[in-house]
Amino acid sequence: MAASATQRAGLNLRDSGNGNPSREDTAFDDQVNTRPIKSLNSSVNLDDEYTQDGSVDINGKPSVRNKSGNLKACPFILGNECCERLAYYGINSNLVNYLKNRFKQSNSTAANNVTNWAGTCYITPLIGAFIADAYWGRYKTIAVFSIVYFFGMVLLTISASVPGLKPHCKQSDSNCLVTKGQSGVFFLSIYIIALGTGGIKPCVSSFGADQFDETDDVEKKKKSSFFNWFYFSINIGALVASSVLVWVQQNVGWEFGFGIPTVAMGIAVCSFFSGTRLYRHQKPGGSPLTRIAQVLVASFRKWNISVPHDKSGLYEFQDKESVIEGSRKLQHTDGFLFLDKAAVETVNDKSAVGSNNLWRLCTVTQVEELKAVIRILPIWASGIIFATVYSQMTTLFVEQGDTMDARIGPNFEIPAASLSIFDTLSVIFWVPVYDRLIVPLARKYTGHQRGFTQLQRMGIGLVISILSMVVAAIVEIKRLDMVKEHNYYERLHIPMSIFWQIPQYFLVGAAEIFTFIGQLEFFYDQAPDAMRSLMSAVSLTTVALGNYLSTLLVTIVTDITTRNGKTGWIPNNLNYGHIDYFFWLLAILSGLNFLVYLLISRWYTYKRATGVFHVSK
């Protein structure tokens, strides 16, 4: 496939030996050009006029640099993310109390239902990401799944508002029964929402990053800051959810507590569509799973073929473009040499019609795509324990806070779920501090453009997460000591201020700034160009698996510690329990996880892209 006119005129000129461009570079065929041609002498102006990363507008035409993308498109994307996260956290922040009070579930059952649902919200992105990378592109995927999400929010509001569908149980009702129909509609609605998140979550951050041309140094630098402000917008939405919405749910009613997030989701959809004419789009590159399967099949078919010592002899498309839509070529890297067999040419690689059999011969770029994914997976796995720590904010942190004194003055009580506001405030505080102070300061010492490498940034967050669990355990020890000293075992709230929890929330927020934002940037940059949505989804599955791991740990701990009639670590009355032991368990697991991470990060090899993006007409 031929490169675009701008790319060939501006980036691929070679000297023919007499100081003039070679005949190969000036003989263009109009039928294979995808960007406008003025003349060879105006190629520099064309490069300035059009983006060089292969992006196109909504009509499939090359993106005009000064009329699309960049900071002009970001407000619509950030507004969408802010409102969508307000909707999500408007449910997630206080869902454990809704299940306990209205569905009469126990502490452990409610916590597990919350983590199972939250986990599903971070598994479904695999579906949306595959559709985006293979078929629809990120814009269409976000658009369709946003509508699904909104429908789920409407159904949830109906389930909490319409007589006969909403459960009538109150916190004081011990014998209240919830019907199967009420449970069914409620769980159907929240899992429709989980499906909706599957198309938004893996695509929106990548779609935002797509607005910055990677071939332009100025825009590339802005892209790094975009991820910080993207996470900032998430937490603005979370701030409103964990403060105003939780208070509304506790004091006004759940119909309003779910209705307001529904309106917010409607605003999110409108915000996204409002920026349509400004967006830059990367075309889908076809099924990434098919390309991976082709490399594996071709490698095993040639298991007895030797890989040449000179890797330049491996098969690769000769033009500067990759054969994969929307992708650049990847240079060969050492490691996983067995996979290189897929790029060794043999006499059996031709199909019956004379073309290459894609299940017998793959390009070096295709092989390197798979290598990049394999190298990313250990880094991905290290985020699971971190996500388990993060999930405690909506489960055990809330249940711990429910036992403490939540009064502010004589007439106001802060809901325990609203304490997550301090996690959000921590993020809002640290994002500008990190972007404006820490990065420039670190840059002076490290010489790295971003201050820290992405791996260093994530590692710092893992250390801070350990400290958050240590602090949570110490707070619980202090609380249990007061219970024991004053015989407060049967008291619903002990006279220990809920604000003792602030440090553990604040530390989790600080850890997010380093680890979660580091993951966003790392998975976008290190993913193969045509797999960015999929790898963003893979990064999100750490949150899902972290929630599932939390569920598993709670189940195992409850089973083991309640044997022989014991109350266990996490009983319904936490005054008889020991959730401090659970926090210590997570701190130990996090410490071991960090040690493994250090080994993995030393082994990691960064991807090396070359050439220009391939964009077909």
If you had to describe this structure to a student in words, what would you say it looks like?
This protein is an all-alpha fold. It has helices at residues 5-11, 23-26, 43-49, 70-92, 95-102, 107-121, 125-136, 138-159, 180-209, 217-251, 254-274, 288-301, 337-340, 364-381, 383-391, 396-402, 421-446, 454-486, 502-526, 532-561, 579-603; strands spanning 329-330, 609-610. 50% of the residues are buried.
> What's the rounded overall pLDDT mean?
84
The class by helix and strand makeup works out as mainly alpha
Number of strands: 2
Helix content: 55-70%
Radius of gyration: 27 Å
Amino-to-carboxy terminus distance: 11 Å
Strand content: under 5%
Given the C-alpha coordinates, what overall shape results? globular
Low-confidence stretches: 1-46
Total helical elements: 21
How would you write the strand order of the largest sheet?
1-2
Element-level helix/strand string: HHHHHHHHHHHHEHHHHHHHHHE
Q: Give the biggest sheet.
A: 2 strands, antiparallel
Indicate the topology.
Elements: H1 5-11, H2 23-26, H3 43-49, H4 70-92, H5 95-102, H6 107-121, H7 125-136, H8 138-159, H9 180-209, H10 217-251, H11 254-274, H12 288-301, E1 329-330, H13 337-340, H14 364-381, H15 383-391, H16 396-402, H17 421-446, H18 454-486, H19 502-526, H20 532-561, H21 579-603, E2 609-610
Antiparallel strand pairs: 1-2
Structural key phrases:
single chain, 617 residues, mainly alpha, two-stranded antiparallel ribbon, 61% helix, disordered N terminus
